[in-house]
Structure formats: C-alpha cells, structure tokens
Amino acid sequence: MVKSNIKNLTFEELEGLMLDNGYPKYRARQIFQWIYKDVEKFKDMKNLPKDIIEYLNENYYIGRAHAIDKQQSKDGTIKYLLVLEDNNVVECVLMKYKHGYSICISSQVGCRMHCSFCASTEGGLVRNLSAGEMIEEIMAVERESGIKISNIVIMGIGEPFDNYNEVIKFLKIVNHKDGINIGMRHITISTSGLVPAIYDFADENLQCNLAVSLHSANDEIRSMLMPINRKYNIEELMKACDYYIENTNRRITFEYALIDGINDSQEDAKTLSKLLKEKLCHINLIPINPVKGKEYKRSELSNINEFIKIIRESGLPVTLRRELGTDIQGACGQLRKSYLSDN
Ligand code: SF4
C-alpha cells in the first residue's frame, strides 16, 4: 500500500481521520503538535497508544526535505537548495528584516508561465508541490539554520495560483495554532496574474496579503515580458484586482521589476500611475536581478529615481525593494538552474 505524507493533512483532516478509524478526536491535536515539533518517527510521539502508532506507520510517513546546497550573501540572506523525496529540487531564501526572519518559498518544481526575465521557467513545469512539501520548505530551513521564521512569501519558483488547492491547504496548515502558527497577515502570495484564481482567492477572504506581478501597465510590453498577459490582459487583471480589493478591503501590492530601456521610462511611470490611480494598493519597484543568458539589464539609478518621483507625485505609495542576496544568484530560480546544468 502506498503511504501518504502526513504533513499534507490539515488539522481538520487529521481529526476526521481519527474519527473515521474509531480513535478519539483529541488524538489529532497530539499528532499535529508532534509533527510540528519536528519528530521524525511516529514512535517518538510519546503520548500516543500503540494501535494509533501502528495505524500511522502502516498508512503514513513524515515527509522531510534536505538542504543539499546553500549560499550565504554578505547581507546575511541565505539561499537553500532543497531536495524532495523524488529527487526534484526547489529553492527557498531566508532573509532578515527588522521585524524578524522571512522565507521566500517555491510552490512548484519549475513553472509554466514563461516570464521572459525569469530563470525558473526554462525547463517548464515539472510538477506541483504538495502542501506538505511547502510546509517542509519552512521546517527544513528552520532545522538547518536554527532560526524561527515569522513571515512567508510565496514568491519563489512557480506560480502559486497554478497550484491553487495545495497552496490554500498550505495556508491553513501553516496558520494553525497547534502547528507552525504563522499568522495570515504575515504571509504574502504573489501571482503573475491568473485572473480566475484572483476571484477565487478574494472569495476565500483570508487575511493574507496578495502581490500581483505587473511589470508594465502597457499590454504590448507586458505580453512580451509575461505571456500570461495574452490570456488575461491588463483590463481583465485590473477588474479582478478591483474585485479582490472591494471584497476583502485589503490592499494589493503591485510588483514592478525595472528593466533598462523596456519598462522604465517616464512614459511608463505615467501609464502606471494612471492605471493604478485611486486603487487601494502599494507599488513595489524591484531593480531586476541580472540573469545569466538573459539580455535584460537593471535600470539606471537616475531612471529609477525619476520613475519613483512620477509615481509619488500621482499620490500612490511606492517603495524600492531593498536588494537582498544579489551576490548569491538571488533572483528566483537561479540556484536551481545552475544545479540542473551541473547535474
Ligand atoms: S516569474 Fe514567477 S510566474 Fe513568472 S516564470 Fe518565473 S516563477 Fe513563473
């Protein structure tokens, strides 16, 4: 019989499992707490009776991921390459902020969105990560680093909304008070703009943050950078964003990677300001990380400053993302890419 990873179960599913098998419901809490105290074997769950341990051993295993490579930046950012049970690898990045440690996790092995500036996309999508594997990204990094993580961004390899159900399940597990217990307000999901999933996510009404990778307010440029724009153009994307804002009363962060000569002109800044005017939002500008084999260059500092000035003058809140880990192939997918080309 094929065993399943117990980390894929939400607390409620674990309760259902206990009841369905004739065990008391309160055993679910004990098991859940042990899992997130990071025990490796069911037999180490000391307050469980033998029959439950046997049942768990017969049907489940406690999934683990292992760091096989790590790169530490001068600024303290650490990028981990984790190997999964089937030998696929994913990346996650541990970053220190004023308010604690933040982890950027992957949601898929590879990605099929084919954004032209991204290193994750070249081999296409290999497979989705399960909720338990995303949980393990956090646990493996905490284990490896000895650091307690307080914030999560789902912005690593993959498009989270292309793996919608597992990502929602992950949020429920990671947020549970008897487990890792990271508050929804400390979690951000980033999407390249999968419009139907933005509507679904708005309807979930979770308290977690949404970031939308915009990168241009012009359909022609955006379609060139992000092929998803050919399926869901800027007008459709903005309608979905308005629906999200109206229904959740939460602000959206629009991510905008500044690329020299592509989307960083004064005209681009004006079009962006016009598009987002009066939206409950925040604009996060990111000087693009150069990717080996891609021709995109980071914008000149004078262009970045002018861009910011135009947006500020329009009244929209804008920040320039602090650059972390540029000396360790910090951009999404680069460590995995170099690992795959060496192996
Ligand atoms: S930027 Fe994100 S959505 Fe786009 S190809 Fe890379 S991983 Fe996928």
Q: How would you explain this protein's 3D organization?
A:
The chain has 343 residues and is an alpha/beta fold. It has twelve helices and 14 strands. The strands form three sheets. A ten-stranded mixed sheet has the order 3-4-5-6-9-10-11-12-13-14. It has a two-stranded parallel ribbon with strand order 1-2. The chain has a two-stranded antiparallel ribbon with strand order 7-8. It folds into two domains: 4-61, Orthogonal Bundle (DNA polymerase, domain 1); 66-342, Aldolase class I (TIM Barrel, Alpha-Beta Barrel), CATH 3.20.20.70. The model has no long low-confidence stretch (mean pLDDT 92). The structure holds iron/sulfur cluster (SF4).
Which segments are poorly predicted (pLDDT under 50) over 5 or more consecutive residues? none
Q: What's the CATH architecture name of the largest domain? A: Alpha-Beta Barrel
As a percent range, the share of helical residues equals: 25-40%
| CATH class descriptor name of the largest domain | Alpha Beta
What's the overall average pLDDT, rounded? Answer: 92
Widest sheet: strand order?
3-4-5-6-9-10-11-12-13-14
* CATH H-level homologous superfamily name of the largest domain: Aldolase class I
List the domain count as a whole number. 2
Residue fraction in strands: 15-25%
Q: State the CATH topology of the largest domain.
A: TIM Barrel
Distinct bound molecules:
iron/sulfur cluster
Structural class: alpha/beta
Instruction: Report the total helices.
Output: 12
Number of strands: 14
Radius of gyration: 21 Å
Largest sheet: 10 strands, mixed
Shape: elongated
